[in-house]
Structure formats: C-alpha cells, structure tokens
Amino acid sequence: MTSKLLTKLIDKAIVPAVLLLTTRIVSVVLMSSYLNFDFSIGLSGFTFQNSIEYIFINSYSTLVMTVVLVVGLIYVLIKSYAFHDSHIKPGVTAKLFELKIPNLIQSSFDIYSQAAIWISYAYLLLIVSGIMAYNKLIYSWVFYLVLGMTVVTTVFFIFDIENEIKLSKQKESEYDEDTLFLEMEDK
Amino acid sequence: MIKKILLNSTLLIILLGLIGAPIGSMALMKLSEPENSVVLSVQDKREVEENNYLPDEENIPEEIEEVIRKLEEEYYQTIESTQEEELDILLP
Questions:
Q1: Do the Cβ atoms of A12 and A114 come closer than 8 Å?
Q2: For labeling, which of A18, A120, A129, B3 is most exposed (least CB within 10 Å)?
Q3: Measured between alpha carbons, how far is A93 from B87 in angstroms, rounded to an integer?
C-alpha cells in the first residue's frame, strides 16, 4: 500500500534531521553564552542586538552544521565503498562478523537511500548558505567551504554509482541473440 | 487507488518536512538593532566609526601645525609653477 522507497527515505531522514537541528540550536546557545554575546530567545527564535555578533554566530553555527554533515557523508561514503554487499572483500566480511557488526554490510537500496538524504541536506545547506552569504548574513568563506564539501562528496558518490553500474552489468546473464541454430533445428 | 495516493502523499509531506526542518532552523536567528541606529551592515559600521574621528583643533601641537603650513606652501608653489608652464605652452 505504502511506497517502500518513501518509507525507507523517512526512516533514513530522522537521524540526520534531529542531529542537524540539535547542532544548530546547541551551537548557537553555547557559542553565544561562551562569548557573552547579547541575545534573547523568543517565539521567533534567537534575536541578536549586534550585527557583528549575529554574523559571527550565524557563520560559525553554519560551519558546525557543515562539520556534522561532512561526518555523516563520510560515514555513508565509507559504507558505500568498503561495506557495500555488492563488492565487499571476503576478508572484511569475515572481520565484521568476527567483531559482531555484520549490520554494517548493506545493500545498494539501503546505502543509496541514506546517501540521497545526506546529499539533499548538503545541497539545501549550500543554497541557504549561498543566499545568506549574498545578503552578508554569514562570512562568504563559509559558503565556499559548503560548496567544496558538496562538490567533493557528490563526485565520490558518482564514482561509486558508476562502479555499481559496472558491477551489475557484469552480473547480468548474457543471451546469444543469434537464432540461426534454432531455425536450422526447425528445418 | 485514491487511498494509496493520499497515503503516499502524506508520506512525501512528512519526508519533505523532515528534510526542511534542520535547514529551516537556520532562519531561527534574527537581528534586531536599535531604531536610532543608522548602521546598515558591518562594513557601513566600520566606515562610520572611521569617519567619526575628528581631531581636536585646539590641541594640535605647534610642530605639526608648522609641518602642515610648510606642506601647504609647497603645494601652492608647485601649482603656481605648473600653471605658468602651461601658459607658456599655450601662448608662444
């Protein structure tokens, strides 16, 4: 009844959503308190009185979110390169079973649905940070950092998908399309 | 069929909400400067601060005043000489 893909994507989106949301709020509160910046918390969120402090906190909070995003993307990349069930090495499989963490070995469906979520967050963060940098609400170098991170991780995922396509083509059974032999038998 | 579409649409909305929530949290930060502030950006603020520096004319030391006077004299002398040269060129 329900789409298997949508259910999987929702399942994979919960953890990064909570993680990124928490990171944003906690980083703003901790940094502002540590640096004694004047801010108030209301229904509309955090309100800063000073533009320099606002830009500083906004930039570094976005940076912390980017770091969390990078960690998540690296985790998915490691899984897709090293623990992908389509091309995992036998030695690694044995080691994972020995360490009692065979759950790390995942299928393409699991890995790519997770990757799609993390990549979506990366691109959304890139768009929002771009708008903020254009309006001088964050330092421009934060935007360039997000841009670099997004491009590099996307390229790595493309390489892995290409590799996966190559492997799946090798596994496909090949049929001889030449029907001459069959036709001769009929005669 | 309609039930299936409705159910999956709900799932899609939940998914989009989950993806949008952390990025939406970036809009939680706002800037509220005092009304009397004329500062529009960080750059403007820096410029205003720089332009606000006005030296106190009464407390300028005599040595500096002398240097300024000499520089002014040299400036006017060079201007006068260049004007004379220009006139010579124009009126042979």
A1: yes
A2: B3
A3: 94
**Which of B14, B25, B39 lies nearest to residue A25, judging by beta carbons?**
B25
Interface residue ranges in chain B relative to chain A, Cβ cutoff 8 Å: 3-4, 7-8, 11-12, 14-15, 18-23, 25-34, 39, 41-43, 45
Q: Give yes or no for A119 touching B (CB within 8 A).
A: no
Q: Other C-beta atoms within 10 Å of B52: how many?
A: 7
Q: Where are the alpha helices (DSSP H) in chain A?
A: 4-34, 51-82, 90-98, 108-134, 140-171, 180-186
Q: Are the beta carbons of A17 and B21 closer than 8 angstroms? A: yes
**Per-residue pLDDT reduced to its tens digit, A35-69:** 888 888 887 788 888 888 899 999 999 999 999 99
Residue A37, SS3 per DSSP: coil
Residue with token string 């999956």: B8
